[in-house]
Amino acid sequence: MDWREVAVTVSSEGEEAVADLFYELGCQGVSIEDPELFVQYIESGEWDYHSFGEVKLTGTSVVKGYFPEDEELADKLCVLEQGISGLLERYPDWIIHTKGISLKEEDWATAWKAYFKPIYIGKNFLVKPTWEEVEVKPEDVVLELDPGMAFGTGTHPTTTLCLRTLEDMIKPEHVVFDLGTGSGILAIAAAKLGAKVEAVDLDSVAVKVAQENVDLNNVGDRVRVLRGDLGTVLVGQADVVIANIIADVILGLLPDLKRILKPTGEFLASGIIDKRAEEVEVGLKEAGLKIVDRVEDSGWILFRARWA
């Protein structure tokens, strides 16, 4: 099957909203190329193993989605165009440009790999794609990934915020629920820190990729991957519940949180763009939680909360 790559150039603050449009259309692959993020990692020395050459800062990101070129493509592109027009009406200062190209199956399967390189995150996490070779130090906690079409390579601020926080809070034998597991990176990280993890996602592709990554990292005895509605397929209560999704989904999860989070547990809410942070903060407090930490990176927010 051939595929259509649709690349939307948008002001950095609009990348989440555009990605949401792709996801709502059932897009089986979404990538975000953010030059500002690349520069931050390069200057910090976290990307030691490669060179991207010159990276130009434009104030924009490129959000790419991939659709099969079938009989539904024209309707999906029409809905996408309407969605982008709606965003421009609400946020006229966003710079949006759309371009589409056709890709052969083999080209589509590797198109997103160009920017996924080994990277250190936090104290000891080393996120490594399967196709890259690196020298591993004894203290490294290696997270080896082949994310495929699922979101979550570890390089986006929403994920790095979670990884850094998990490194400081996970204790051996903690029970962790990872809601919206994507590639499974956070579930695998928690397992390698000693936790027992239930990883849940609605998307069948994400579930398949997450299970493959769990097996690749030899943590199948500590991670169970489930497909289903977030928060509704889980039994029992967790010491830590992770929701690295988007603001609307996090708010929708809060009524069910009492059922799945222990009285002494902690909730990590990430994937929140700064413009939605106040709304999520209010929702957390109304659900009976107190915020014990708020961390920001590149306009993205993570809340760490406990029962009040």
From TrEMBL:
Reaction it catalyzes: L-lysyl-[protein] + 3 S-adenosyl-L-methionine = N(6),N(6),N(6)-trimethyl-L-lysyl-[protein] + 3 S-adenosyl-L-homocysteine + 3 H(+)
Keywords: Cytoplasm, Methyltransferase, Ribonucleoprotein, Ribosomal protein, S-adenosyl-L-methionine, Transferase
Source taxon at top rank: Bacteria
Example of a GO biological process term: methylation
Keyword hit for Repeat: no
Gene Ontology MF annotations: protein-lysine N-methyltransferase activity
UniProt binding sites for S-adenosyl-L-methionine: T159, G180, D201, N244
Main localisation: cytoplasm
Class of this enzyme: transferase
GO CC term (a single one): ribosome
Keyword S-adenosyl-L-methionine belongs to the record: yes
Name listed for the protein in its UniProt record: Ribosomal protein L11 methyltransferase
UniProt organism field: Desulfosporosinus hippei DSM 8344
Chain's gene name: prmA
